[in-house]
């Protein structure tokens, strides 16, 4: 069946705007191809526009800066455009295939250059893909940050349709989905926990990041495995022109990045590291217990790039990060590791390939330091993956993408070892689980005339459960009635499914378009947690004979319009998500070190819908955006809440974000953001009863109560040092305040028993950050 689907896509892609088929082998077209780079450091530019003025059409560079476009032989005026860079124009007579690499240089800060470039930046209108947000390092840097540590994830949380799961958390919900339904990739490797210090900071060091894309619905067919979103983070390749260094010194952390050529214009590197240092001052504390405590995180990004020739490039990148906490009574550490080896190969001017070997690991350790009751608890998740991606530039109106990926998952949910004489247990070992997750895809981006752009594709995904393992059988009351054991390497269960993806844009005029999309996604690996906050102790588990994959169908429609020479972009999108085999947990689930955890899981249906408004603007001195979301997210499970529907814990009816940047002069900038969203639902006790002499709380319906609304304002002021002629050192001071007016936003709600009346309790609010100032010195040389 898959071969038939591939054949149909190829046939459709040969249809040109006049309605007849023209096989490319009969075409007399010639091809212009090459790479588009940053002229200052050699970084390949993703999504740069190549525009043929005579044809009034063009193409964009792919994820590796490569472009290809077929034209009839002749003379052309070609413009190379990338936001924030000066446009390059080339007059070419193309009579045969031509390979042309282009270097673009960053703009000066004049209004004229900003406006001229703005006239070409109409991707908001013309791109057939919708529900996509793009960020560059400079976008992230301009937003006020908690404790001065600029953060990609925190900026994404300011976009419509994206909400933080709690105050300061790196976990987030997209269009009412769960945090584990977001696929987060760093150079194509999966990041399972994107947070440091319980989520207050993300694992992404902005100095090491080149490009970030958030897909909220219209996820490319090349990616899968999650229901709600894809966050695709790409690291810098490292300058191949000269040695450069940059970094920052803050109140709680510092960072340093070093990059440059090993062989100029051929081999380059980048190494970037961060560390907090609050623990360095703990020995000075007056409290004896604090002197021996530890509290810090560190991470390192590193990457090598080697240009073999114009048709072959190799990349090796890695990330290593760790959080460490220790006090008198307890200890904990956790972290991620990723490894990516990529080979870019150009077979011919029309065919580009990328072959990737990927490794990813997340693990944590938890324990106590009390000798009598000491124990250690360990958990680990590891992936190995092979991925093949191809771009075939069939003709000026069609670009085919196809490929495959296989991921080998190994999950060690938990091993706990009691070591003290009074330990509650000697050893608990939850059995490992293993599985192979597959994806095969093909898609086409097609132009029908000058107005209609369509992107359509199909992904075949699957999961194969592999032994060694034990699967428990449950009755209707979720009591264990038997078990099935499988030997090492034995394949004992499989799931397969098709995932169609379709998106289209119809251009009404030069500044306005209508877009729509439909996508189906399937998720085979899930997160067990009964908290909306990010924690390092979450347990991942795979679909199995007892738990089917989650499936989501999402429909989106939007109106996109630009104003003022494309310097103001607006969009209104509406979406509807329908999810089957959704996962939730019974009341009071036992999720930790439970080898029968599948008996705690309940499956049902969920759905979400909403409207998103976004206004982005960039002027000479002002830039920023305004976002608003109205949405609802519902769940319905036969065995939860008496079978009645209830709100998702990630439901927020209203969500507003305002981001403003104002250049006060050549050396200074003022930035502000304001956030508001409706309080999240939660389940509260509404009574108490005595059972065997103990007081047991009685709870309301699931998620019937609501936290107070959340809002805060952040402010930052940046001033650059005067630049002296001939001096390479550049520095700037950043002064910021998080939660400027001191709003006490609820982080959690707990209930305190009345001393005089044991049947009565009152709600108490816990809040984290009331007013947090910070100072950071950033430098570059």
UniProtKB/TrEMBL annotation:
InterPro entries per the UniProt record, alphabetical: Beta-barrel_TonB_sf, CarboxyPept-like_regulatory, Plug_dom, Plug_dom_sf, TonB-dep_rcpt-like
GO aspect biological process, one term: siderophore transmembrane transport
Transmembrane segments: none
Keywords assigned: Cell outer membrane, Membrane, Receptor, Signal, Transmembrane, Transmembrane beta strand, Transport
Species the sequence originates in: Plebeiibacterium marinum
Pfam hit, one: Plug
GO cellular component: cell outer membrane
Leader peptide range in chain numbering: none
Sequence ranges assigned to domain TonB-dependent receptor plug in this UniProt record: 127-225
SUPFAM superfamilies: Carboxypeptidase regulatory domain-like, Porins
Molecular function per GO: siderophore uptake transmembrane transporter activity
Family, per entry: Belongs to the TonB-dependent receptor family.
Name of the molecule in the record: TonB-dependent receptor
């Amino acid at each position: 069946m898959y071969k038939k689907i591939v054949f149909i896509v190829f046939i459709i892609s040969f249809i040109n705007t006049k309605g007849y088929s023209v096989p490319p082998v009969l075409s007399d077209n010639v091809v212009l191809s090459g790479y588009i780079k940053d002229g200052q450091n050699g970084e390949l530019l993703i999504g740069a526009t190549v525009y043929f003025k005579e044809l009034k059409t063009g193409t964009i560079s792919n994820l590796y800066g490569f472009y290809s476009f077929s034209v009839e032989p002749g003379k052309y005026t070609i413009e190379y455009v990338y936001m924030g860079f000066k446009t390059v124009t080339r007059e070419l007579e193309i009579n045969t295939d031509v390979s042309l690499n282009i270097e673009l240089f960053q703009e000066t800060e004049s209004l004229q250059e900003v406006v001229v470039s703005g006239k070409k930046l109409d991707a908001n209108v013309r791109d057939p893909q919708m529900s996509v947000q793009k960020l560059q390092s400079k976008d992230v840097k301009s937003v006020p940050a908690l404790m001065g540590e600029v953060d990609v994830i925190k900026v994404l949380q300011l976009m419509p349709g994206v909400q933080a799961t709690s105050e300061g958390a790196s976990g987030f919900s997209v269009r009412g989905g769960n945090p584990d339904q977001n696929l987060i990739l760093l150079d194509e490797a999966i990041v399972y926990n994107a947070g440091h210090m319980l989520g207050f900071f993300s694992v992404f060091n902005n100095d090491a990041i080149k490009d970030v894309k958030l897909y909220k619905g219209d996820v490319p067919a090349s990616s899968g495995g999650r229901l709600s979103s894809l966050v695709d983070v790409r690291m810098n390749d490292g300058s191949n022109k000269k040695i450069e260094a940059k970094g920052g010194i803050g109140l709680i952390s510092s960072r340093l990045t070093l990059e440059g050529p090993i062989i100029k214009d051929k081999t380059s590197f980048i190494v970037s590291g961060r560390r907090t240092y609050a623990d360095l001052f703990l020995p000075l504390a007056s409290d004896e217990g604090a002197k021996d405590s530890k509290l810090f995180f560190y991470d390192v990004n590193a990457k090598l790039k080697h240009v073999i020739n114009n048709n072959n490039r190799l990349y090796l990148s890695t990330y290593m990060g760790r959080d460490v906490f220790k006090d008198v009574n307890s200890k904990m550490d956790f972290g991620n590791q990723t490894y990516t080896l990529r080979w870019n190969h150009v077979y011919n001017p029309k065919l580009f390939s990328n072959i990737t070997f990927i490794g990813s690991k997340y693990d944590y350790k938890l324990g106590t330091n009390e000798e009598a009751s000491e124990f250690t608890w360990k958990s680990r998740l590891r992936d190995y993956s092979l991925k093949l991606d191809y771009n075939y530039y069939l003709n000026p109106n069609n670009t085919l993408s196809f490929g495959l990926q296989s991921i080998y998952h190994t999950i060690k949910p938990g091993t706990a070892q009691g070591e003290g004489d009074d330990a509650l247990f000697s050893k608990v070992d939850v059995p490992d689980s293993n599985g192979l997750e597959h994806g095969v895809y093909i898609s086409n981006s097609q132009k029908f005339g000058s107005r209609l752009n369509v992107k359509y594709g199909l992904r075949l995904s699957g999961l194969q459960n592999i032994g060694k393992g034990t699967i428990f059988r449950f009755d209707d009351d979720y009591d264990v009635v038997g078990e099935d054991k499988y030997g090492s390497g034995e394949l004992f269960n499989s799931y397969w499914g098709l995932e169609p993806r379709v998106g289209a844009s119809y251009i009404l005029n030069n500044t306005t378009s209508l877009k729509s999309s439909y996508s189906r996604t399937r998720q085979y690996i899930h997160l067990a947690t009964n908290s909306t906050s990010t924690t390092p102790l979450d347990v991942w588990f795979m679909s199995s004979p007892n738990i089917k994959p989650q499936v989501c169908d999402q429909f989106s429609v939007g109106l996109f319009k630009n104003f003022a020479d494309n310097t103001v972009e607006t969009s209104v999108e509406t979406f509807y998500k329908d999810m089957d085999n959704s996962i939730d947990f019974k009341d009071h689930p036992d999720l930790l070190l439970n080898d029968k955890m599948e008996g705690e899981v309940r499956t049902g249906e969920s759905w979400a819908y909403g409207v998103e408004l976004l206004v982005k603007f960039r002027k000479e001195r002002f830039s920023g955006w305004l976002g608003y979301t109205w949405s609802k997210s519902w769940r319905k499970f036969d065995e939860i809440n008496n079978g009645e529907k209830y709100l998702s814990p990630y439901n927020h009816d209203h969500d507003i974000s305002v981001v403003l940047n104002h250049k006060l002069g050549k050396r200074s900038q003022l930035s502000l953001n304001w956030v508001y969203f409706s309080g999240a639902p939660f389940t509260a006790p509404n009574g108490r009863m005595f059972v065997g002499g103990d007081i047991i709380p009685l709870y309301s319906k699931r998620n019937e109560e609501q936290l107070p609304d959340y809002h805060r304002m952040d402010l930052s002021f940046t001033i650059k040092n005067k630049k002296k002629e001939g001096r390479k050192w550049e520095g700037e001071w950043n002064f910021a305040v998080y939660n400027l007016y001191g709003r006490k936003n609820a982080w959690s709600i707990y209930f305190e028993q009345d001393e005089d009346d044991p049947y009565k309790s009152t709600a108490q609010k816990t809040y984290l950050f009331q007013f947090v100032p910070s100072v950071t010195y950033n430098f570059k040389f």
